[in-house]
Structures are given as C-alpha cells and as structure tokens.
TrEMBL record:
<comment type="similarity">
    <text>Belongs to the short-chain dehydrogenases/reductases (SDR) family.</text>
</comment>
<protein>
    <recommendedName>
        <fullName>D-arabinitol 2-dehydrogenase [ribulose-forming]</fullName>
    </recommendedName>
</protein>
<comment type="similarity">
    <text>Belongs to the class I-like SAM-binding methyltransferase superfamily. Cation-dependent O-methyltransferase family.</text>
</comment>
Length: 275
C-alpha cells in the first residue's frame, strides 16, 4: 500500500507506476474491505465489486440473514467474506464490527460506509422521530464508521474511505418530500470533504459517491414508488441507474490509482443533476 508521497521519477506513463500497469493499480489483492448495508441493493453490488477486484470483504448489515446470504454468494466466486450483524447508528456495534475485522484479517484498508435509510413526508409534517432516525443512520452512522475505521487507518498510515451520499445532496429531485434525507446526505458530503482534507497527509483518503436514482428495494417503497415514473422523465440517460452502473466507481476510489483524490463527491446520475 502506498503512502501519500508518490516519488515518481521514471517515465511512468510508459513503464507503469512502480512497474504496474493501470489495470494492476486497480487491483485490490490482499486488501481488507468492509461494506455497510451490504445485504442488498447498492451495498451488495459494492461488496461483489471489491471482492472481484481481489479484496477480502466483510459484509455488514443490520439484517444478519441478508449478510450471510451475500457472504455465501462471494464464497461461490472464491472471494473471502465475513458476515457481521451491526446497526451502524450504535457506536458499540460499529466498534465490534471493526474489532471482528481486525481479529480475522488484522487490518482495515477499505471502509465503504454505504448503509442509509429514506423516509419521506411533507416538510411541515416531518416528525422529530423521522428526522432523528434518518440522521442517526445516514449521518451519525457514517460518522461513527469513518471515525472507528479512520483510527485504525491512521495507525496503519493507509486507508481508503468511501461514503455513499446521494445526488439529493446537490439538487432537490422533483417532486419529492425528503427534507431529512436530503439534509442528512448533504452532511455526508461535508463530512467527507472535512475528513478527506484532514487525513490525507497521514495516508487516509476519504471520498463519497452520489448515485442518482438507483433501481433498488429502497425506491420501491410504498411512498417512493409513485414518483419513479416522474423521475424517469428527469433523467437525460432515459433510465434509472442499475447497481452495476456504480461498481467501477467504488473500485476506483478503493484502489491505488485514485491516491491523489480526496474529499470529493463522485456523482453518477445519468446527467440528472445537470438538467
Ligand atoms: P436498500 O434499502 O436497498 O439497502 C440498504 C441496506 O442497508 C439494507 O440491507 C438494510 O438492511 C441495511 N441497513 C439499513 N439500516 C441499517 C443500519 N442502521 N445499520 C446497518 N445496515 C442497515 O438501499 P440502497 O438503495 O441499496 O441504498 C444504499 C445507500 O445508497 C443508502 O445510503 C442510500 O441512501 C444511498 N442511495 C440510494 C439511492 C437509490 O436510488 N436507491 C440513491 C442515492 C443514494
């Protein structure tokens, strides 16, 4: 694993950085990763992508049955997996997650803080309970994971943290009623920027991915389903994102080829935020 100083002197474009071609620099062999909310949807796709690129992957979810199922899928492909039940809004669960990974693999190189929830109601009707629940998972949970993983990574002098934010951190998708969700995801972007600049000189990069509207169980909830048809007409690409549209981004942010990138928000939304 490389530290922040590159020390590149050769003609690296021709020879490859330290003799490694771009595809070799995108491999994750021997790295240890975890993905929260990996029992389904985007997190499951991230777990498969990191594993296919060579990483050992801890599959973390509040639902242990889903986590076990995804680990079995990884094992079928020859990927080492570890199922961990954790509620990321609880600091004791987050610490237990890190301890379990350390005792099995002895390091945390890649922290993919993806778990999130979405509740929607008109802003004037948003209850404090709804606001607190959304923030406890989306922002507090992401902070707890960043801090616990970050402490290990700072000791290692190396780490890649990838948070899942949302296009809703940048624009207000219309028509929708997601005050607490949008605000919590804007917080994830600012958390990422702050940590990304604070920790880069100690070898820890922090970036986030902001998906547009992705075809997962999250958007097929009773309250969001009626909006899907309307959203489709707002997407220049003409379709919803599939989870596979996001997989290369997580591998890129996890690998050595993105070492000079920190604090940024990679937006993948079929052009929707530009229209
Ligand atoms: P999903 O609802 O399909 O899956 C979320 C997973 O997280 C589930 O397996 C669930 O059990 C788990 N989870 C929920 N609360 C948890 C907690 N407290 N601790 C641990 N695990 C928990 O969601 P998704 O669509 O795959 O979304 C994943 C992430 O991407 C979320 O942060 C979401 O906000 C974000 N996102 C989704 C979309 C979209 O359109 N689907 C768009 C932008 C951003």
């Amino acid at each position: 694993c490389s530290r922040i100083k590159a020390n590149i002197t050769d003609d690296d474009v021709f020879r490859g950085v330290k003799g490694r071609s771009i595809l070799e620099r995108m491999r994750l062999d021997g790295r240890v990763a975890y993905v929260t909310g990996a029992g389904q949807g985007i997190g499951r796709a991230f777990a498969h992508a990191l594993g296919e690129a060579g990483a050992n992957v801890a599959v973390v979810d509040i639902d242990p049955i889903k986590a076990d199922t995804v680990v079995k899928e990884l094992n079928l492909k020859g990927i080492n997996g570890l199922a961990i039940k954790a509620d990321i809004s609880k600091s004791e669960d987050v610490q237990r997650m890190i301890d379990s990974i350390m005792s099995k693999w002895g390091a945390v190189h890649i922290a993919c803080n993806n778990a999130g929830i979405n509740m929607n109601s008109a802003s004037e009707d948003t209850t404090l309970d709804e606001w607190d629940k959304t923030f406890s998972v989306n922002l507090r949970g992401t902070f707890l994971c960043c801090q616990a993983a970050g402490r290990v990574m700072l000791k290692q002098g190396y780490g890649k943290i990838i948070n899942t934010a949302s296009m809703a951190s940048l624009i207000v998708p219309h028509p929708q009623k997601q005050l607490s969700y949008n605000t919590s995801k804007a917080g994830v972007v600012k958390l990422t920027q702050t940590l990304g600049t604070e920790w880069i000189d100690r070898g820890v990069r922090v970036n986030c991915i902001s998906p547009g509207i992705v075809d997962t169980p999250l958007i097929h909830s009773e309250s969001l389903e009626p909006l899907v048809q309307r959203w489709l007409s707002d997407i220049p690409a003409g379709r919803l994102a599939q989870v596979t549209d996001l997989q290369a981004a997580v591998v890129y942010l996890a690998c050595d080829a993105s070492d000079y990138m920190t604090g940024h928000n990679l937006v993948i939304e079929g052009g929707q935020s530009l229209w």
